[in-house]
Amino acid sequence: MESVVPDREYLAAEHARGGVMPEVGEGNPGPYPPPEWARAWRELVLAAAGPVAPPPWWRSAELSGGLATLDDSASQSWDGIDGLVGHEPGLLFQLTLAGQGELHVPGQPPVQVFPGSGFVAVDPAHHSFRVADHSPGWTFAWLAIYHPYILQRVGARAAAIGPAIAVAPDGGLAASVVRLVRGTLSRDFRDRFEVELALIELALAYERSTGKEDESQGGQLLEEVRARVVRGLPEAIDVNTLASDYGMSRTHFSHFFRDRTGLTPSHFATKVRIDEAARLLLDTRVPLKRVAIACGFANANHFCKVFRRFQYMSPISYRRAIP
Predict the structure, then answer these.
(1) What is the dihedral of CA 171, 140, 182, 43, to 10 degrees?
(2) Phi, psi of 236 (to 5 degrees)
(3) What is the pLDDT of residue 78?
(4) Secondary structure (3-state) at 4
(5) Structural domain 1-211, CATH architecture
(6) Run of H or E residues at 257
(7) Neighbours of 303 (CB within 10 A)
(8) What distance in Å separates the CA atoms of residue 277 and residue 296, rounded to the nearest whole number?
(9) DSSP 8-state assignment for residue 1
């Protein structure tokens, strides 16, 4: 099996073919990752070598990310990273792949980060960062997230336990971070639903890695309700029916659902139907009226209004925009 440990011949080959490397200084490719992080490092380096233009449905206002290497030990703000400028408040996931850095949070001691560690910064514009003393540089993957649900869910957990995180190279959190960063560079997500699913998987992986078992139950609840709503189509399952399925009153179930997921059951059930409608728009040539009826909407006009509220475009524009 080919080694994934980066070497100078590999780096030289990337430079020769015009690849964009995470460089620090003239001719210096930056610190090398340890073997256990070399595969993730190489995957993101190759993705960064050929960034592509975003498709029409891409929402940069909810997610951005990339791979960065720094060699200046002077303190810097998050505005020094392309993609974070002008976005606040937000949430930043950082995973160190090589070298060592420091996160400075006002009123707290510096957070030291090494390969396999990182941090979750809530409203990162108020923090600063620097390369650690005696480190040849600092290479890290980063995700800036502005999705309201993920911001609320992950932000609350990070505020409770602090910013530092430990990441296993073969664990779910590492896979989620690398997948999302690669996706922001190569735009290889099929559509925005796949992006949203990847963000939810990141939140669940983060909660599992930090020991929050009760929150992982929220993901199970979402999947149960999603399956129930889809199974009930073309009828639109209401909150009373969902509450009855769980042996609760409407009020009790609404509190139960929101406490575990951060969403209202009515909003989520509608979103599931819109997701199913979007799938039909992409995978079939079924007329709009039939899509509306199949997904529990009384007529095409009502369907178009609700679809635009969730997707920020009409169903016809959506079908045309997604290849």
Answers:
(1) -80
(2) -90, 110
(3) 53
(4) coil
(5) Sandwich (2.60)
(6) helix 250-261
(7) 23
(8) 10
(9) -
- Residue ranges of the chain assigned to CATH 2.60.120.280: 1-211
Contact of 218 with 268, CB cutoff 8 Å: no
Give me 240's structure tokens: 């009373």
Provide the 3-class DSSP secondary structure of residue 94.
strand
User: What is the C-alpha to C-alpha distance for residues 194 and 30, in angstroms, rounded to an integer?
Assistant: 33
Structure tokens at 139: 């290479």
| Furthest-apart CA atoms within the chain: distance in Å | 66
Alpha-carbon gap, residue 33 to 116, rounded angstroms:
10
d(CA 223, CA 216): 11
- For strands 164-166 and 101-104, give the pairing: unpaired
pLDDT beneath 70: ranges in the chain: 1-30, 51, 60-61, 72-89, 124-126, 212-217, 321-323
Burial class (CB in 10 A: 0-12, 13-18, 19+), 27: exposed
Q: Residue 129, Cβ neighbours under 10 Å: how many?
A: 25
Tell me the fold of 214-321.
Arc Repressor Mutant, subunit A (1.10.10)
280: how many CB neighbours lie within 10 A of its CB?
Answer: 18
What pLDDT does residue 111 have?
A: 80
- Residues 124-136: tens digit of each pLDDT: 666 788 888 888 8
- What does the block give as tokens for 113? 């980060």
Residues of the chain with CATH 1.10.10.60: 214-321
- What is the model's pTM? 0.59
Which amino acid appears at position 185 of this protein?
A: L
At 57, which amino acid appears? W
Question: Can you list the pairs that 53-57 forms with residues at least 24 positions away whose Cβ atoms lie under 8 Å?
Answer: 53/187, 54/187, 55/187, 55/321, 55/322, 55/323, 56/321, 56/322, 57/191, 57/192, 57/318, 57/321, 57/322
Among 109, 140, 141, 103, residue whose Cα is nearest residue 122: 103
